[in-house]
Amino acid sequence: MDIKVDSNTVVVFDLDDTLYNELDFLKSAYQSIAVYLEPTNWKPLYSKMFSLYRCEINVFEFIATAYNLELKTLVEMYRNHHPKIQLFDGVLDVFDAIKSKNGKIGIITDGRSKTQRAKIESLGILDYLDGIVISDEIASEKPSLDNFKAIERLVSGKDYYYIADNLKKDFIAPNTLGWRSVALIDNGKNIHFDSHKFSDAQNLPQDYILNLKDLKIV
């Protein structure tokens, strides 16, 4: 897919399962918790936790009972750990290409400020970004128009693109505002994998890509 970029172009990305797999954040958090609880032999516990998750059994309830911990303590450990995550292949190439054409880059993401900013820092992309909108920081979540209007205020432009993955909430607002909406197809590891439930016209993107390498900045 070609995107024509100049100084009036703003390419906005979702974060989780768009620039990296959110499952890797979950695995990173589980490992951090396992190391904290079993510092000398953490791998069996980590294996147990991930197996419980895959079987859709509440991991935190298991840990809270087994180690006599409060659930809120585990949730805070999950949210506030320093994540070990990696960008999808092709992300930096796309970012570099956008910047080489004097385009601008933004992020709109739902989540808690500390958690989402830790992800951005770990991914090493902060210096590329002209604007960041995090739901926790503006008390508004997608699909609200407010999140997208916030980026329009932060980053001026004429042509806006939104590249994201979740048909439930990602494309309603940009479609309404006249942005170009692009869906990154689930690579089989997405946390949210129920896109088939959201096939109404308002939910659908205007384009699909298999991976970020499909984007050609011209």
UniProtKB/TrEMBL annotation:
Keywords: Hydrolase, Magnesium, Metal-binding. GO terms for biological process: small molecule metabolic process. SUPFAM superfamilies: HAD-like (SSF56784). The keyword Ligase does not apply. GO terms for molecular function: metal ion binding; phosphatase activity. The keyword Chloroplast does not apply. Its cofactor is Mg(2+). Gene3D superfamilies: 1.10.150.520, HAD superfamily/HAD-like. Pfam families: HAD_2. This is HAD family hydrolase. It comes from Gelidibacter maritimus.
